[in-house]
Amino acid sequence: MDSKDEIALVQRQEADLVLPAFDETTAFEIGAAIRLRAAMEGLSLIVDLRSWDRQLFFAATPGTSADNAEWVRRKINTVRRFQRATYRLVLERGEGVFPEVFGADPADYVIAGGGFPIRVPGAGIIGALTVSGLPGRRDHGVVVDALCDHLGKARSGYALPEVAR
User: Fold this and answer.
1) Are 76 and 130 in contact (CB under 8 A)?
2) Triad 46, 50, 53: Cα angle to 5°
3) What is the pLDDT of residues 76-101, one digit of tens each?
4) Strands 54-60 and 115-120, how do they pair?
5) pLDDT band, very low/low/confident/very high, at 163 (cuts 50, 70, 90)
6) Alpha-carbon dihedral of residues 83, 88, 92, 95, nearest 10 degrees?
7) CB 111 within 8 A of CB 89
8) Residue 157 region, left (φ>0) first, then alpha (ψ -120 to 50), else beta?
9) What is residue 115's DSSP assignment?
10) pLDDT at 165 > cutoff 80
11) Cβ distance 119 to 125 under 8 Å?
């Protein structure tokens, strides 16, 4: 799968992995499922679910640090501003910081996988589901898997290939 195909797949993830509603219960269910997976697989990660006005779920597993929380904050800012998955930006622009012309200060924005827009029908993008702790492609995969599981969709229909080409 080349990068154009991967971008198209991430766009399909964004379009299809839409929550029918998003509230405290939904945030807890998705966040707790990610936390449980991390514990069972020994993954060091932070997970954050939020609407734009408040954080609804946060968890950290052993091996994470304040740096991971900082990456989460910057990924959330990037999702909010650019209205797309941060891994899609990686595929479109390359990992790192935005060119100066964007005015996206690297202290507040980052191009790294793991931030995903929470979309609700009739409302659009209302928040973000963000993971940090693994390489960006894997962070993104954890998010997509969790949304697929929550929505009852087959992971295989939305998973990126194991290794980028």
Assistant:
1) yes
2) 140
3) 999 999 999 999 999 999 888 888 88
4) unpaired
5) low
6) 110
7) yes
8) alpha
9) E
10) no
11) yes
